[in-house]
C-alpha cells in the first residue's frame, strides 16, 4: 500500500472514533409531554425545549429553551418565556414535535372556569430564532353548547379558517420571546 492510502485510512479511523466518542458524550433527553429535543441549529447536538415550574409547587410554568450540551456540561438557558402558560391553564400544557421540525405548545385551560379555551402555538426555528408561525384557538361556553368559536390560521401565509369560514389577512411574524398569554392575532379575536 502506498503511503497516501495508509495516511487516508488512519485519518478516517481517527475521525470515526472521534465521532463515536462525541456521540457517547451527548446528554440524552427522552422526549415527553413536557420536554422535546431536536438539533434545530444544526450543530450536531440537540437543543432541549421544556415546560418547567418557576415557583414552588409548580404554581407557574415557563417554556424554556436550552442549548445542546455534551456530557456533564451544565445546560445553557438560551431563553425562557414565562407568559405563555397562564396560571389558570388546567389541565395544563404539552409539547409535540412535528414532522417538519416545528413544534406545538398546547395550552389547555378547558377545566378552568365557565369559558374553556385551548390554544395551540405553532413554532418554527428560522434564521437563528424561534418564531410563531400559526395558532389554533378553540373557545366554548360550558353552559351553552352552541357557543363555540374556533380559529386556525397560518400566520406566515396569512390564511386560515375562522368559525368554519376561510379567512385571509396580512402575514405576521412574531418572535417566541415576544409572545405572552394575552397575545392573540387580531384575526383570532372573538
- Strand percent estimate: 35-45%
Structural class: mainly beta
Q: Major sheet: size, sense and barrel closure?
A: 8 strands, antiparallel
Q: How are helices and strands ordered from N to C?
A: HEEEEEEEEEEEE
- The backbone outline, from C-alpha atoms, is globular
Total beta-strand segments:
12
Distance between the termini: 76 Å
Oligomer: single chain
Count of helical segments? Answer: 1
> Residue-averaged pLDDT, rounded?
81
Helix-residue proportion = 10-25%
| Poorly predicted segments | 14-27
Please tell me how large the radius of gyration is.
Answer: 22 Å
Structure description:
The chain is mainly β and 190 residues long. It is 12% helix and 43% strand. It contains one helix and twelve strands. It has one helix at residues 3-25, and strands at 35-38, 47-53, 61-67, 76-81, 92-97, 103-108, 115-126, 129-141, 144-154, 159-162, 165-168, 174-175. Strands 5, 6, 7, 8, 9, 10, 11 and 12 form an eight-stranded antiparallel sheet that branches. A four-stranded antiparallel sheet has the order 1-2-3-4, with no helix packed on it. A hairpin with a 2-residue loop joins β10 and β11 (165-168).
Question: What features would you highlight for this structure?
Answer:
mainly beta, 43% strand, 190 residues, eight-stranded antiparallel β-sheet, globular, four-stranded antiparallel β-sheet
